Amino acid sequence: MENNQGSKGPRPGAERASGPTLSTSREALLRTLRDQPEPVTLAALSRASGLHANTVREHLEGLEEQGLVRRHRRAPHGRGRPAWLYEATEATAAGTAEYAGLAATLASAIHRSSSDPRADAIAAGTDWGRDLARNRPVTQRGRATARREVVGLLDDLGFAPQPDAHDSRVMLTRCPLLEAAHRHPDVVCGVHLGIVRGALEEYGGDAAPAELLPFSDVGACRLHLTASRNPE
User: Fold this and answer.
1) Which of 14, 95, 97, 180 has the highest Cβ tally under 10 A?
2) Which helix (H) or strand (E) holds 87?
3) pLDDT tens-digit profile of 1-39?
């Protein structure tokens, strides 16, 4: 049975068209796989698609029979049988796949070796955000400009942001690294928050109130660029 209420968290990547021979929900699931630059687990697919895990499993089995999806076991780590990883059979751009693999490896390394993974991830993301903002210079600086420019930067990075009227609260409806964020949200989401804070600082805004609530809403993560009246 499908979860008509949707699931919390953003979708991966940008949508592409798929073949006309699939049901609507199966076609949407295949788009999700094609949009994700790295193989993903059934749990991450269920969260991204808003479908019940049993429905996702049924669709994946059908897509695998049609040759549109392949699966393999994740590398063993700890106790228990490793989860299956799924990916679309069409080729993924080499650069994108390498980036996703590198990002996932770095996230795992930071999570494993750091005494404070989230803090270290935010610090790294902050430096990255400053560099990204310097490559998108503005003629004016200030809080309003900074919030507007950060929304534009997030759009360039593939988060499909949906800001409110004042650019103070932004719904991030896509995630470029959904599977890595699903496994290590402290690191991946920490880097994403750091990018926001670093860019805000570079554009002359106030970075201190910025907070990211991962997988907080149906189909999105919630980003506060100003202090929230109802922190969660």
Assistant:
1) 180
2) strand 84-88
3) 444 455 667 766 544 433 446 788 888 888 888 877 778
